[in-house]
Recover the amino acids of this structure.
């Protein structure tokens, strides 16, 4: 009996991994917790406590994009990375770094360009956006650091057809990256040159 239950639990966990990855790829959901809860509902297991870890879903998402995304996904990723470079040129004074799905390659048609910018005060970026007459919305997001959490302002706007988010870090966020929601390690960030190198690689893959 115990072995049978363990096998059922393992099968359900794998189904949750695959369905969470599919939801994130197809619906553009970026929050692992939301994707897991939605997957559990769709699999008629809303009360399960056997939820997979974020890194399991991230690996499945990468596999899903490779298997089903094909050239369309690569083309969308290329366009998003090019849009990221344009945004990074625009925010050059704030030492922008690319992060998130556009950096790790799992972005799809509905994904946003996620930037981390650095300023003496958060208001510096607000004034910059206002000076350039860019409509934006601001929300606050909690980022986890080594010993605690910190609330960071995140600005949302649209450049052409591409949604862009800009998290503004001051103080320790300038030197110490927050922890990744995927694996708990330091969040990966890329400079403009590094993104341009990825674009060159993308072009080779599409040839």
């Amino acid at each position: 009996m115990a072995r049978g239950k363990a096998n059922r639990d393992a099968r359900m966990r794998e189904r949750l991994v695959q369905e969470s990855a599919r939801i994130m790829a197809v619906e553009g959901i970026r929050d692992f917790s939301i994707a897991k809860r939605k997957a559990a509902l769709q699999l008629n297991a809303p009360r399960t406590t056997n939820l997979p870890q974020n890194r399991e879903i991230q690996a499945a998402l990468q596999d899903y994009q490779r298997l089903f995304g094909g050239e369309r996904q690569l083309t969308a990723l290329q366009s998003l990375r090019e849009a990221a470079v344009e945004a990074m040129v625009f925010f050059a004074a704030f030492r922008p770094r690319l992060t998130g799905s556009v950096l790790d390659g799992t972005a799809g048609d509905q994904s946003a360009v996620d930037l981390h910018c650095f300023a003496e005060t958060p208001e510096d970026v607000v004034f910059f956006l206002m000076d350039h007459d860019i409509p934006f919305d601001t929300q606050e997001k909690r980022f986890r650091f080594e010993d605690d959490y910190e609330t960071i302002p995140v600005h949302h706007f649209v450049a052409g057809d591409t949604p862009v988010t800009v998290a503004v870090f001051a103080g320790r966020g300038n030197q110490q990256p927050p922890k990744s929601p995927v694996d708990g390690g330091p969040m990966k960030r890329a400079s403009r040159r590094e993104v341009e190198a990825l674009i060159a690689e993308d072009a080779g893959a599409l040839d």
Helices lie at 2-27, 32-42, 54-90, 101-104, 123-131, 192-206. The chain has a mean pLDDT of 88. The first strand starts at residue 97 and ends at 99. Residues 70-206 form a domain with the Beta Polymerase; domain 2 fold (CATH 3.30.460.10).
